[in-house]
Design goal:
single chain, 482 residues, Immunoglobulin-like, 3 domains, 8-stranded parallel β-sheet, 21% strand, globular, metal-binding, Glyco_hydro_b
């Protein structure tokens, strides 16, 4: 299906009943965000004057991506409907992913200048998008700026990197000062603490309080965990595993989805992460067709409760079973069908408060066939995902939908009306997902039919006039010839 056609269907469906637009940037909460997770070095190389010892052929080396490149191609992210870019660590580092920090007071020279980072942030805010930066503390470079004078602040990891002792009061003080200075200088909107399972819990509370005193800023983590004091949101435990196992091929065990959907509100949810393998690798291993697998799992991710975090390259079905293979250079010249699907799902989520923060009720789940309801007092949606090898149907009673309603599918253009027994019956072919907007049944559009009738009468009158004029001309010609 063509993107423009899908968008017109989506807009038409949304107009059927009034829906408030997504909150303005200054009014958004973390639950209103859709996060696009990207590595600066792997996105787009705009400037060559910062390409120091770059090698696109070596997957473990810097590849040349920079702040200017991210600014240049930002509209790719904006147009897909994401509201926040998480751009990784931007501090001076010895590795392309920014994790092995050398100095918190310096930007990584491969990524660009202070002015270019400022320009990136300003452009993001102009486009009503927020920017989040990673704060690594547990895998720093052995040459970190603090290491020589303060070796007691660190412990050594097996791979030779250094971990800050965040329970040390002096370390806590220095981190608060360093990152505080950073967010005073650059008006970023969020921080993500890296490897939080190794970070002192008391420090997280202190750090969160100090950062939020400087600016109202989001603080999240990067690893699965239960709620952490001081965090605005954490990665929901087991969500990634349940989603990947449910959608890596058709006819999978999806029995874990209802519980996941019920527990995901307010938490970060993701299909994969920048920490390891890509979902495409699972699909390929199971001999699934990646574009179809991605369409279905994205429908699940972007219509369920929680805060979606989508990794760069998901829209191109990027592959990779381990690092750095899973951190490929972004390919922006790709088939747009999956991009269109993500765009339309994000447009729906951004336009619908019920999709972001509404209530959820799972109506059915069995053998890859799941149907659930997202709703609040103003609107209702039915999400149906058939991840099986056969056509599936479900009859939904009026007690769940209401009487005299109709459901309009946004992607398959189906219209479901109440049957004589009072139920609403949804049928989907194999490996198809759709999202239905519940509205009042419109029945026959009398105004439209009346307008058609008037047009028909006017058209017939026009034809009659043409016929009369033609007949008159023939008669006049015959008189002249006599």
């Amino acid at each position: 299906m063509k993107a423009k056609w899908l968008v017109s269907v989506l807009i038409g469906a949304l107009v059927l009943s009034p829906i408030e637009p997504a909150a303005a940037a200054e009014e958004r909460s973390i639950e209103d965000e859709i996060i696009y997770d990207v590595l600066v070095d792997r996105y787009f190389n705009k400037k060559i004057d910062n390409d120091f010892e770059v090698s696109a052929q070596d997957p473990a080396a810097f590849s040349g991506g920079d702040f200017a490149g991210l600014s240049d191609q930002m509209m790719h992210i904006k147009d897909m409907g994401f509201t926040m870019m998480s751009i990784g660590s931007v501090f001076a580092t010895s590795t392309y992913d920014g994790k092995t920090v050398l100095d918190y007071s310096q930007l990584e020279r491969h990524f660009g200048t202070e002015e270019e980072l400022q320009a990136l942030i300003e452009q993001s805010h102009k486009e009503d998008m927020k920017v989040m930066v990673d704060i690594p503390t547990q895998s720093l470079s052995a040459d970190h700026a603090w290491a020589a004078e303060n070796p007691e602040w660190f412990t050594k990891n097996e791979d030779g990197t250094l971990a800050l002792d965040t329970s040390n009061a002096e370390v806590q003080k220095q981190l608060v000062v360093a990152i505080g200075d950073f967010i005073k200088k650059y008006e970023i909107d969020g921080l993500r603490l890296v490897e939080t399972d190794k970070v002192d819990a008391e420090f997280i509370e202190i750090f969160s309080s100090e950062m939020k005193n400087i600016r109202d800023i989001y603080l999240i983590n990067d690893q699965e965990s239960e709620g952490i004091d001081g965090m605005d949101a954490v990665v929901l435990p087991d969500a990634e595993e349940v989603l990947r196992n449910s959608y890596k091929n058709f006819d999978q065990d999806s029995s874990g989805l209802p519980e996941l959907i019920e527990e995901s509100s307010g938490d970060l949810i993701r299909v994969d992460s920048l920490l390891g393998s890509r979902f495409t690798a699972d699909a390929v291993a199971e001999r699934g067709f990646p574009p179809t697998r991605w369409r279905l799992i994205m429908t699940q991710l972007l219509t369920m409760p929680g805060i979606p975090v989508v990794q760069y390259g998901s829209e191109t079905a990027m592959n990779g079973s381990e690092l750095p293979e899973s951190h490929q250079i972004m390919d922006l010249a790709v088939e747009e069908e999956l991009i269109d699907h993500i765009t339309n799902l994000n447009s729906l989520r951004n336009s619908s408060e019920a999709m972001r923060t509404g209530e959820t009720e799972v109506l059915h789940e069995e053998d890859g066939w799941i149907v659930y309801k997202r709703f609040n007092e103003e609107e209702m949606w039915i999400v149906a995902i058939n991840n099986s090898s056969s056509t599936k149907s479900i009859s939904i009673p009026a007690s769940e939908i209401g009487s005299d309603k109709e459901m309009r599918g946004l992607f398959e253009s189906d219209v479901v009306r109440q049957e004589s027994n009072g139920d609403y019956r949804i049928t989907l072919d194999r490996e198809i997902a759709d999202t239905f907007h519940v509205t009042e049944e419109r029945g026959l559009n009398t105004a439209y039919l009346a307008a058609l009738a008037v047009l028909y009468v006017l058209f017939m009158f026009f034809i009659w006039l043409v016929w009369r004029k033609g007949k008159q001309r023939k008669a006049d010609g015959a008189v002249k010839n006599k």
